[in-house]
Amino acid sequence: MSEHIVPTRSYYVIYLVLMVCTALTVWVAYLDLGPLNTVAALAIAIFKAVLVILFFMHVKYSSRLTWAVIAGGVFWFLILLTIIGDYLTRAWQPYGSV
Amino acid sequence: MASSTVLTPPHHYLNDGVGIKSWLLTRDHKRIALLYLAGVTFFFFIGGAMATLIRIELITPAGDLVSDETYNKLFTMHGVMMVFFFLIPAIPAVLGNFLVPIMIGAKDLAFPKLNLASWYIYMLGGLFTLYAVVAGGLDTGWTFYTPFSTVASTSNVIPAAVGIFITGFSSILTGLNFIVTIHRMRAPGMTWFRMPLFLWSTYATSLINVLGTPVIAITLLLVAAERIFHFGFFDPRVGGDPVLFQHLFWFYSHPAVYIMVLPAMGVVSELVAAGCRKPVFGYAFVAFASLAIAVLGFLVWGHHLFVAGESVYSAMIFSILSFLVAIPSAVKVFNWTATMYKGSVSWETPMLYAYGFIGLFTVGGLTGLFLAAIGVDVHVTDTYFIIAHFHYIMVGGTIMGYLGGLHFWWPKISGRLYNEGLAKIAAGIIFIGFNLTFFPQFIVGYLGMPRRYHAYPPEFQVLNVLSSAGASILAVGYLLPMIYLMWSLRYGKLAGSNPWGAVGLEWTTTSPPPTENFVTTPVVTWDAYQYDAQQVEGHVA
Amino acid sequence: MLPEAVHQQTHSPSLAHHFDNLEQQREAATLGMWAFLVTEILFFGGLFTVYMIYRSMYPQAFAAASHELVIWAGTTNTAVLITSSLTMALAVHAAQTGNRRLLVTLLIVTIALGCVFLGIKAFEYYTEWVEHHVPGLNYAFEPEYYRNAQIFFSLYFVMTGLHALHMIIGIGIMLFMLWWSIRGVITTEYYNPIEIAGLYWHFVDIVWIFLFPLLYLIGRHAHV
Amino acid sequence: MAGRVDALYFFLIAVAVFFGVLIAGLIVFFAVKYHRKNPNAVGAQIHGSMVLEAGWTIIPFMITMVIFVWGSSVYFAIAHPPADTLNIYAVGKQWMWKFQHLDGQREINELHVPVGRPVKVIATSEDVIHDFFVPAFRVKADVLPGRYVSIWFNPTKPGRYHLFCAEYCGTKHSGMIGEVIVMDPNEYESWLSGGPEGSLASAGGKLFQDLACNTCHRADAQGRGPMLEGLFGKTVNLQGGGTIVADEAYIRESILTPSAKVVDGFQPIMPTFQGLVTEEQLLQLIEYVKSLRSQQEQPTARPVEATRPPTNETTPVKK
Prior knowledge:
The structure holds 4 protein chains of 4 kinds. Chain B is built from 16 helices and no strands. Chain B is mostly helical. Chain B has one domain: Up-down Bundle (Cytochrome C Oxidase, Chain A), CATH 1.20.210. The model of chain B has no long low-confidence stretch (mean pLDDT about 95). Chain C has one domain: Cytochrome c oxidase, subunit III, four-helix bundle (Four Helix Bundle (Hemerythrin (Met), subunit A)), CATH 1.20.120. In chain C, α2 runs antiparallel to α6 (about 145-185) and α5 runs antiparallel to α6. Chain D has 7 helices and 12 strands. In chain D, a hairpin with a 4-residue loop joins β2 and β3. The model of chain D is unreliable at about 295-319 (pLDDT under 50). Chains in contact: A-B, A-C, A-D, B-C, B-D, C-D. The interface between B and D is large, with 95 and 90 residues.
């Protein structure tokens, strides 16, 4: 089989980074950054998820098709999130909200 | 048709193993296709029986045949059965299962055990839903709108939701199986642009299955949680928004319309090519139109909410996107029509269904423009206009495509020919009955008759009687194929490997095909639909 | 017709009859798993959408309700899951390099960590019950946010509940993998089952990576 | 408005007939002309035409864009009521329509309106989703629980018109029907005067006293709650930043969930009235708060009153 075998050292490095990020996200949550709190929490979460996907799940070494499948999934999730567009624009008109 | 003697091949998938166990434990995609055929036919006739009762009730303006409660349950279960247990699985799970591996020159789908599991999951979901019927019915409409479904209804919402949830996994797994198969199992030389168009549309459908079905699954789960535990998701009493349910519901259920009609479009591409013995006009455009419909179809769910309380601005965006999705559908219709130009056009049964499909789908598609135009939609939505529109797509489109495909590949599936004369008559009856049933509904809808009405004002009676009369004709049309197809299994003439003189890998193997489809793996060196005189003569003889 | 028999003689016993070779089989299985994970993205995606919309509607109620969750339990569980992802990744490596003893050990550790996660989760559910945070069944909350906090808790239970269900399924799969590894089905030539089981396990970890900040960490800084 | 909807409708029919006949005609023509006579014949090997593909992509695209612009402009008119409407409150419940007129009349499943004056129905539901549908006026809108929707129309011809519930709402859905009775202005006046004593606002005022709202919301601005005089239509500053226009929805929310959007400078001490007031009483209270405006200042500009759906105006459809 032609699968790329990742040296275990890189797994340990990623693990360390993930743990540090977990500590970081908890620490940041106790600071008052206004709306930036949510941004920071999501940014750290996305960063962690990307690390897991690229290294633990070997996507860094996978075919373009795998990348396309993941991109498709994320893209469709973003389409789903656009439901919020209705809620944001309802505020522009009276009788729009409860 | 075959003139010289044809023989049944000594070994084929139908006689490779006998007894009930060899069927219930089979991993052969062709046998699983037949299991699905039994399943979808069963649910089709249940749904059809309910439709019959609905139409009989509506002959008179007063609600006199059944009670209002029963009527509500009838149209709900008609919708649930037809949508989730017939229309969605029909073409992919029966014809797709049978044809996908054969058309790409593979021995089976990528995951045969998963394929069998999908059928069991489908049947399990169906039985759960049937239980909901037997245990007293379901009265929410197939759309399960909250808060009616979560707070007000006293009927069997949970068993039905669970049934649909379970069946959703069958759709997901079948779609996943097709995607992997088409990516990874193509025979040597079978490039993407040599694939028959049926595969392109099946692939596009599978994408929708995989991407959309999980959303309906989670949505129904939330409805069930709200009902069982009184959790709050859509309940206005805790600040929830019932319109959010509609967003999530239609995020799947609008693309689901394309799950139903895209495979039928694929079938029609095959029928038109074989019926005209000609390449499909604009192959690449038809292929990409399938993908365009699959993608754009995910961006238009909000057009079901024009009067439901979504914002004016949201409505405008969904309106323009809905018009865009009409374009690839129009492209397909024009291409099929152009394919007939200078063809060798056959009048055989499958081709009659193809003509019927193109005509009825065109009417369905054009009336869709009425609904995408918000100003008109406000008036006609939730009336019989909508009912007529989507039946033109679902029945005029999907069922015509399904029956056309079934007639086209029946000789391959069974190895036998059916009675062509009876089949032509049935096709004609279905076409006439269908139009008589549903055309009057456009008019009665514009006049203002709301859908889901058990009793209605007397001025709508004439049109309703016409519609019910049409339905009785349609019912005869659906029973006929049942009879002569079954009859052909035993008494039909042997078909030979290529009764239509068509090209395509499925016509190069025997009828019925052997268990692993081909004796030796085919090597493909030609494009789809390459007809030339010698080839056809060779096939026909 | 004896295709099965013919295949058995000429091919690896791990090769199913309808594939041409192991490479095709492996690619098909991996693609299948990724396609399945895409459906999972959209399954949880529906929940995240509902969460986002209601949080944007009722930010204060969400912050107040989130404050009631047991943050140390959530944080510990995050660490537990990330560690289990590491042991899972190492298990795939052990399978690739044919170290069966290490593979078995790592699978056992992964399963154990999964059980620890579920144990802590169960403790949290118990705490929520005791503190009357279960909408519909056992619910009380400060009057200011009484109504809207129910949406948060409903989402909390459905999101973490479905995540926990995925963990349980994952543990089941891992037990199966463990059995296969002990029996020697898994070889350097055929380690694909471990690999795709690992994909699933990592995916469940990723879901938690998002659930943790969204459920536990909102409004930690400024609760009234 | 019925005229505008119908004009677009007939244009769409023309488009549909044109393309329907074109496709059906071509199919029949080709099927006859190129009918296979020799069983071994094959068709001409034509693969496609870029020009045709471009043509039947671009032309339908342009036609649909015309329909889009037209349809949306009709919809915009449907969604924006004029400023001087006659307001009527409606509550839908399983399975009836309840109406309250500003002058105090209440009716069930019948709605009396004068001819020649735009009418705006502000509607909500007590239970599940209903839908206010008057085919003759080409208006339809879902009536949602927990929310106000407004529907406007301009009746132009006296008569009786169907009112339907068009969103499935349970067992007697098809019985949730009524009539809109369009009357001459004179007849309407005499119908109005036949009603009970006291306007809707005065009923709300009485309720305001009975519920003891007036102990905190005092007209002299000395109460523990914000002064309500002149509130309606104003922009309110909220605690923790942000503003909101005090419309029907805001007043409703403030009664049911007082802590959700507290006015800046006040404590969130008001108890909830969820479950204590009915939807109809809420509407009376809202009308009362609206009426308080006139004591302070004359209504110069009404708040923007974009609404959800429909229309105005009648085409006389027989009944």
